[in-house]
Each structure stands twice: as C-alpha cells, then as structure tokens.
Amino acid sequence: MNARHRPAAPLALMAELTHRCPLQCPYCSNPLELLKVAQERDTEFWLNLIGEAADLGVLQIHFSGGEPTLRPDLAALIAHATARGMYANLITSAVLLNEDKLQALADAGLGHVQISIQGADPATADRIGNYKNGHAKKLEIARLVPKLGMSLTINAVVHRQNLDQLPAMIGLAESLSADRLEVAHVQYHGWALRNRAALIPTREAFEAADAIVAERRAALRGKMVIDYVVPDYYAAKPKTCMGGWGQKLLNVTPDGRVLPCHAADSIPGLEFERAGLSPLKEIWEQGRAFETFRGTGWMQEPCASCALKEVDWGGCRCQALSLAGNAAATDPVCHLSPRHEEIQRLAESESRADHREFIYRRL
Amino acid sequence: MMVAAAITRDSVPVLRRGVRRQFDRTRNCAILMAPERVIVLDEIADAIIESFKPAATVSDIAAGLATRFRAPAQEIEEDVIAFIRELNDKGLIVL
Ligand code: SF4
Ligand code: SF4
C-alpha cells in the first residue's frame, strides 16, 4: 500500500440537495435508484455541513441535484456558504425560477449560475428534456443572470441527437451574453449509460464537433470561454476524474452520504459515511470509501507501473466498473487498457444503431 | 480567425462579474474565486488585481506598483500586460 499521509484539504463540495427534477433528461448522471423527498435532509443538516466544509477549507460549493431550486431553503444555504467565505455555484435547469427568486439568490451571494440547455431550438430541447416550454423558460432566466451581476455558464450537453445543432447552441450562448459555455459530451453514468445506444455520436460527428469548438473558441477569446468535455469513448487518454479520487472534491447525496464522486454509488462494496454522524474532517481523511482509491496503492497493471499514474490517477473508477467489470481496473478509455479496443468498437457500433428512443429518467 | 483583443497601456481592466479576490485562511494565500475555479495569486498578481479601479489604466496600475515595489516602471508594465492577457484569455476580466 502507499504511504499514509493526511490528504490535503478538499477544494470543492458538491451539494446534491435533491434528486427531484421537473425534467427527465435521458443522459442524467443521477443513479437509477433516485432518492425520494422523504429521504432528503433538512435545512439544519445542510447548514451544519456547510460550516464543517468551510472549517475543512472548502472554497467552492456547487448546489446541484436533481433540481436544487426545488428546495425552499436554497437562498438560506447560499447565504450561509457565502458568509463562510465560500464561492457559491448553482447548477440548474432554471425552469422553476422567476425574477424574484433569482434576485433572492443573488442577494444571498450567489456568484455563478450554470443553466443547461438540451438543444438550440424548443422542439429538440423540449423533446430531450421531456418538459414542455422548458427551453423558452431557460432562455428567459439566462438573460436575467448577467443583469443581476452573476456569472452565467450555459451548459450544452451534446450527443447524437443534437450534435448537429452545436454551431447554433454556441450562437445561442453568445446571444445570451454567457461568460462561459460548457460543451459537454454525455458521460455514460447512471441514466446515460442505460440510454447509451440512443446517445453516442459517431466518430465522424465527434471529430466535426471538435473542429467547430476549436474554431469558435479561438474566435471568441476574451468574450466567452468555451470549455469542452470530450466523449470518453473516443479518447485515447482517460480524464483525471474528480482531480483524483479523494483529492479535491466531496459529494454529498440528498440523503446525506458523503461520496468521493457523484457516481461512486454505483460501485458495489463501497460504504459511505453519513455527514452529521461522524465529523466531515474524519470522513474526508479516513473514510473507507475515500481511502479505497485515494493515491496509487490500489492500482493494478498497467496503471501500477505507468509514468502517468499521478497525472490521471488511472481514470474514472465508475467507468472502470461499468466497462471493465472491476472498479480497480485501468479505465478502458486509456489506450493501454486491454479492454480499450473492444470499447471503441462497441461505441462505434452503437453509434450507428438506428435507435432514437429514450428511456426517460423518472423517480 | 479573429485576433485577440489588444491589450495596451490605456486598457482599463476590471474583474468580470462573478469573480472575486479574497484570502484563503486554510492555505494562507491570496486567491481569485471564479465560477468553479480557484486561482492562487502570488504577491505581484494579488497586488495587480488589488489595483483594479474604475478608470485605472494599465499604465496607472504599473506606475503604482513600480513605486510600491521600487521596481523599474518599464519592467512592471510588461509584467502587468502579460498577466492581464492571461486573465483575459481565461475570461476572468473585462477590458
Ligand atoms: S440532467 Fe436533466 S433530469 Fe438530470 S438533474 Fe439535470 S435537468 Fe434534471
Ligand atoms: S495506464 Fe493507467 S495511469 Fe497510465 S495512462 Fe492509462 S489510465 Fe493513466
């Protein structure tokens, strides 16, 4: 095993306030077993957690879900995080917001609002999110965000059924005065994994998208930043998932369990401590789930003797599980994984499938 | 391809909405907090950002820092421009 030393303080806390969501995106990364409202934690729980996270050194808090604006205590939680010196980010579908509610969040200290779009036009977007008039509502709220002095990110999740709209989505983000656009290819966890055959783009479409992003990014320098999340299955190198397991980020589920990553739940055998029952500091430093894949001691070959093992930390554990059947294996996205070619063949064949139907996410 | 906005001695940089400068007591350093990002600032970077004021140009900022750090104005101005360019590329300021 690797030498035990105390991990550095975490930088970010992902607070999944609820799994409830008015949309039903088929690429949602929430787990298939969604938590119900009765399992959610109360305001006091989250206030205490925010205090503990601030004491630990967390600087950024991401309010997410599900749809975090379903929680009536959201403004109070933002105010508390801000008072404790954290930077508050909101990840939202925006369809439940209005000007008064948004103003209240801005007054509480919210710095950044990230709004997802499902396409460039209402018909496509509302079909994918399975929510009527959602697209129009999103645009209305997005326009207000910069006016209220907050930073706006438009998050465009792209896949086979909307990738042809990429140039239009970039144009839309510009017209909304977004500070940043995140073009994110679907990551195949949770509901997205179940819908993979309806979502995965062809390699040719992916390469065309790549070129479009590169060109627009250069043209928009200094005006709008474009961040790009590539589709894992067509990459040759794995992502540094979560900045390394248990190194930067804590994720707290609606029922109060502390995870090293939002998809960690999918790994059988990992047990997660509950915030409020043990101190957050202890969970971060010694929690079993955090220790299991922290550092490099758990690695198998080819990771164990690879020069990049402290660069990408062996990729994503959840993906290693879902694609290689073993969470401690090398992420099959890596070209050194014995499963790599098999995965690429699978991606290419699914991408050509004549499969358009979605299994919509539901509680 | 478009050319990046030129940064000159007369540019007036300000932090973009949603970007804040503060001190991190846990890690004992100055930081810039931005959407989903934390940027650690060294002493000079922190001093440059501290000098952002409405109507303060790059050359005003450089002159102030040259006095404060007793350094040649020319050199400081080059450092300031390079740093401002970096912040602009990252979308952290507006000019
Ligand atoms: S991905 Fe869609 S369904 Fe899932 S939480 Fe976000 S908006 Fe809701
Ligand atoms: S073998 Fe492991 S450590 Fe090396 S590049 Fe691949 S995933 Fe990263």
Describe the structure in your own words.
- The complex is a heterodimer of chains A (363) and B (95).
- Chain A has helices at residues 43-56, 74-83, 99-107, 122-129, 134-147, 166-175, 190-194, 196-199, 203-219, 280-286, 288-292, 317-324, 340-351; strands at residues 12-16, 60-64, 87-92, 112-117, 151-158, 180-185, 225-229, 249-252, 258-259.
- Chain A is of the alpha/beta class.
- Chain A has a 9-stranded mixed sheet with strand order 7-6-5-4-3-2-1-8-9.
- The N and C termini of chain A lie far apart (41 Å).
- In chain B, strands 2-3-4 form a 3-stranded antiparallel sheet. A two-stranded antiparallel sheet of chain B has the order 1-5.
- Chain B is globular.
- The interface between A and B is medium-sized, with 29 and 26 residues.
- One iron/sulfur cluster (SF4) binds next to loops of chain A.
Arithmetic mean pLDDT of chain B: 91
Tell me the overall shape of chain B.
globular
Give the cofactors and ligands.
Answer: iron/sulfur cluster
Work out the helicity level of chain B.
25-40%
Biggest beta-sheet profile of chain B: 3 strands, antiparallel
Classification by helices and strands of chain B: alpha+beta
Largest sheet of chain A: 9 strands, mixed
Order of helices and strands of chain A: EHEHEHEHHEHEHHHEEEHHHH
Strand order of the largest sheet of chain A: 7-6-5-4-3-2-1-8-9
- What's the count of strands of chain B? 5
The rounded Rg of chain B comes to 13 Å
What is the global morphology of chain A? globular
Work out the strand percent of chain B: 15-25%
Summarize this entry quickly:
The complex is a heterodimer of chains A (363) and B (95). Chain A is of the alpha/beta class and 363 residues long.
